[in-house]
Each structure stands twice: as structure tokens, then as C-alpha cells.
Amino acid sequence: MLVGWVLAVVTEMVVAPAPTPLVPDPVPTPIPGLAPVVETFLAWGKWVLVVAGVLGMFICGGMMILGRRNRSATAVDGAAGIPWVLGGLTLAAVGATVVGVVVR
User: Fold this and answer.
1) What's the number of domains the chain is made of?
2) 58-86 pLDDT, tens per residue?
3) Rg (CA), the chain
4) 17 versus 22: which is more confidently predicted?
């Protein structure tokens, strides 16, 4: 009896059509004339992130070099900064993809 009821519910869930959304979900469209400005702004932001990432890696490497002798805390801070720099660069690299998935 219970198995038949569960089978009927599962069959109804699989066969039932997907519910229509109550709120309209339009496709995002750019504001006329603003798309080139936004693309330039995003390109500048990407360039700044690349420069900041390279500088961050240089600073971490320099801290590790300078902290080699009798300043081990500086070397450790430099080594600990590398995952943060890589994490920030990774987040910046996948940012557009993540936003695109969440918004749609």
C-alpha cells in the first residue's frame, strides 16, 4: 500500500510539467550607448587586477627572500600571502562566470 502511494507520487512528480514562474524573467539587455563604456571600464578593472596580482606575487617573493636569515616571521608572512594573492586572482578570473550563472 505504501509502496504504491510512493510510486504514484514519484510518477506524478516526474510526469508533471514544470510550473510557470509567477514573476517575469527577462533577458538582460545593455542600455543603448552604454555598452562600450562598460566594456572599457571592465577592461581597465581587469588590467588593474593583473598589475595588482603581479605586484602581490613580487611582494610575497621579496618578503620570503628578505626573511631568509634571522627573520623567519617575514618569510612566513610572505609565504602565507601567496594563497591570498592566488585566491584573489582566481576570484577575479571566474567572477564574470559566477555572476552569469547566478543571475540567469
Assistant:
1) 1
2) 999 999 998 888 888 889 999 999 999 99
3) 26
4) 22
User: Do residues 64 and 75 make contact, with C-beta atoms less than 8 angstroms apart?
Assistant: yes
Whether residue 35 is contained in a domain is answered as no
> CB under 8 Å to 86, separation ≥6 — which residues?
none
Task: Report the C-alpha gap between 40 and 48 in whole angstroms.
Answer: 12
13-39 b/e (C-beta count within 10 Å ≥ 16 → b): eeeeeeeeeeeeeeeeeeeeeeeeeee
- Structural domain of 61: 51-90
Type of residue at 61: G
